[in-house]
Design a protein that fits this description.
The protein has 14 helices and 16 strands. A hairpin with a 6-residue loop joins β8 and β9. α12 runs antiparallel to α13. The protein is of the alpha+beta class and 376 residues long. The radius of gyration is 26 Å and the shape is elongated. It has a seven-stranded mixed sheet, sandwiched between helices. The protein has a five-stranded mixed sheet with strand order 11-12-14-10-13. The chain has a two-stranded antiparallel sheet with strand order 8-9. It folds into three domains: 137 residues, Trna Endonuclease, Chain: A, domain 1 (3-Layer(aba) Sandwich), CATH 3.40.1350; 68 residues, Winged helix-like DNA-binding domain superfamily/Winged helix DNA-binding domain (Arc Repressor Mutant, subunit A); 131 residues, Beta Polymerase, domain 2 (2-Layer Sandwich), CATH 3.30.460. The termini are far apart.
Length: 376
């Protein structure tokens, strides 16, 4: 396994080669061609090649691998540039015969989003936490191992996660509203502080989730799918909220009849909220955000149930779950963005239901994205 204290580029390359070589089948060899360390691409003499490896199969077939090394973590938004630069360094002893080398990026740490974008670009990778994906077409090799999903080395970002109500409130705002918008403009809409909006944007900007025209400029775009995945890595429905289980012996239909007349502040999330726009499977468990589960259960005539319950009454992590809700047939549903997050990190078939909802959201972005109502 690679170690995170391998800071020098030379050591990073050597350690990556050992880690990959140790995972090759018997009699396969990964060689570092020492003479190529200071080589330059024949396509552009100004492009230095960090290293060239050779993968050799037992039957003698071999291929070159062009190595790019970065001694600092590569931000996802920069992966496209790194991939283009790496492929521009194409170099192979057999190039004149039409052979195409493979490419690998070696770094101290690569986030899940950076790794995803490297895969999309057709670039192998290895980082110092043990994340490895090594793919060569000829001779055919595929190696993949899982390392860390968080950088173990502390950085200087003032905000390190989307945990907590204040950060999550901003994440919901970035998710809900249609950009472009200013920091202060969004803060006014979601009843947050400009400082907190700025801190969350700064956390997400290096990953390309939020893009701005300038460091102090307006937010031009938000990659809402990447934001959902990033937020889900810090949020867990069961751990972030307080869940209580109840039983309605006559079924969820009877519950909804009383819910309409109860006069409670609530919002329905989970399976029932998703089913109305993206049916997946007939929902059986009703999940409802309320201020006070005990009081709500009494108003709705529910029985406590340690097991076998069909109702979840949930005290939320933040009142944002009651904001920008949606009404349908006299019922109040949590915003589809909140429902998606709850399903992504929820139990049972929640993640599968989240995928169905996500597909609907891709096709109907104009319907669920909200325009700004206030101005700076």
């Amino acid at each position: 396994m690679l170690r995170n204290n391998c800071i020098s580029e030379t050591r990073l390359i050597a350690t990556a080669a050992r880690a990959i070589g140790a995972r090759l089948p018997p009699r396969w060899r990964l060689l570092e061609r020492a003479e190529s360390v200071n080589a330059r691409s024949p396509r552009d003499v100004n492009r230095r090649i960090d290293a060239v490896w050779e993968i050799r199969a037992p039957d003698g077939r071999a291929s070159d691998i062009i190595v790019e090394v970065k001694s600092k973590p590569v931000e996802p938004r920069l992966v496209g540039n790194v991939a283009s630069q790496l492929k521009a360094k194409s170099y192979s002893r057999d190039e004149q015969l039409g052979a195409t080398p493979a490419f690998i990026l070696v770094s101290t740490y690569l986030s899940p989003l950076a790794r995803e974008r490297l895969v999309e670009a057709g670039i192998s990778y290895a980082d110092a936490t043990g994340n490895i994906r090594f793919v060569v077409n000829r001779p055919a090799v595929f190696i993949e191992t899982q390392g860390a999903d968080r950088n173990p080395v502390k950085d200087e970002r003032p905000l390190r996660s989307l945990k907590g109500g204040r950060a999550a409130r901003v994440a919901r705002g970035l998710f809900d509203y249609r950009p472009p918008f200013g920091i202060r403009e969004l803060a006014d809409e979601i009843a947050s502080s400009p400082a907190m909006v700025s801190r969350v944007a700064s956390l997400l900007e290096p990953d390309g989730i939020v893009t701005k025209a300038s460091p102090r400029g307006r937010i031009d775009s938000v990659d809402w799918e990447a934001l959902a995945r990033r937020w889900a890595s810090d949020y867990d429905f069961a751990a972030s909220n307080t869940l209580t289980t109840w039983l309605e012996p006559r079924g969820t239909r009877a519950l909804f009849v009383r819910l309409r007349e109860a006069g409670l502040q609530y919002s329905v999330t989970g399976s029932f909220a998703a089913y109305r726009v993206a049916p997946f499977a007939e929902p059986r468990l009703a999940t409802i955000y309320v201020d006070d589960p005990e009081t709500a259960a009494q108003s709705l005539g529910l029985r406590p149930a340690d097991t076998g319950g069909n109702i979840l009454l949930v005290r939320p992590f933040d009142p944002v779950v009651f904001e920008r809700t949606e009404s349908d047939s006299g019922f109040t549903y949590a915003r589809v963005t909140q429902v998606l997050l709850d399903l992504m990190t929820g139990p049972g078939r929640g993640p599968a239901e989240a995928e169905a909802l996500l597909e609907w959201m891709r096709e109907t972005e104009d319907r669920w994205k909200i325009p700004m109502t206030k101005s700076t």
